[in-house]
Amino acid sequence: METKALLLIDVDGPLNPYMALSRRRSPQGYRRHRMRPTGWETGQALPVLLNAEHGDELLALTDRYELVWATTWKNEANEWIGPHLGLPPLPFVDWPLVGGSTGEGTLWKTRHVVAYAAGRPFAWIDDEIRERDREWVAVHHPGRALLRQIDPLVGLERHDFDALARWAAEN
Q: Shortest CA distance to 73 belongs to which of 142, 13, 117, 30?
C-alpha cells in the first residue's frame, strides 16, 4: 500500500486570516468566532475567522493526503478549530519549542516539519513560509515537498486547494 503524502496545516494565516480582523468586514465566507485556547482563559476571548467550507475542501483531499495540524494550537486545534470546520480529530506536530531563531534564516517550524515528515512526501501550508525555508527543505528532506505560503489577509483560496490537489496527483 502506498503511503499518502502529509498535508501539514497551519491555523493562523491559512484557516484564520487574522490580518483581516482589522477590517470592518470579514472576508467572504468567513465567520468570526470567540475562542479561549490556552493563554486566553481570562480577559477578551481570541477572535478567530473561519470558513466552514474549508473543512469540506480539506476532507476532499484525504484520498491523497493525511491531514496533520502544524500549528502553535497543537492539539487544541482539535478542540477549537476542527469542530467549526467539520474535521475529525487530527494528529498534530508537537513542537518542542514555539518560536525562536534558527540561525539559518528559516522559520522555527521548518526543521520540525521535516523531522515530522521523516522522509514522507508532504505539502505544508503556512503564512510564514519563505524562500529560505524552501531551500532548506530541498537540502534536508529526501522526499517531495510543497511549501505553500498563504496570505494571512485572505487565507486559503480556491487556487490553493487546486494547487494542493495537482501536487498530490503528481505523486
A: 13
Q: What is the DSSP annotation of 25-63?
A: SPPTT-EEEEE--TT-SSSSPEEEEE-THHHHHHHTTTT
Residue for cell digits 528532506? Answer: 141
Residue 1's pLDDT is what? Answer: 46
Contact 66, 1 (CB under 8 A): no
Q: In which band, very low, low, confident or very high, does the pLDDT at 74 lie, cut at 50, 70 and 90?
A: very high
Measure the CA angle with vertex 96, ends 152 and 77; round to 5°. Answer: 45
Closest by Cα among 109, 79, 78, 80 to 96? 109
Q: What are phi and psi of 160, to 5 degrees?
A: -70, -45
pTM of the model: 0.94
Read off the C-alpha cell for 109.
517550524
Long-range contacts of the stretch 85-93 (C-beta < 8 A, 24+): 85/15, 85/50, 85/52, 85/54, 85/55, 85/58, 86/52, 86/55, 86/56, 86/59, 87/55, 87/58, 87/59, 90/9, 91/66, 92/68, 93/8, 93/68, 93/69
Check the CA dihedral 129-134-169-124 and report its sign: negative
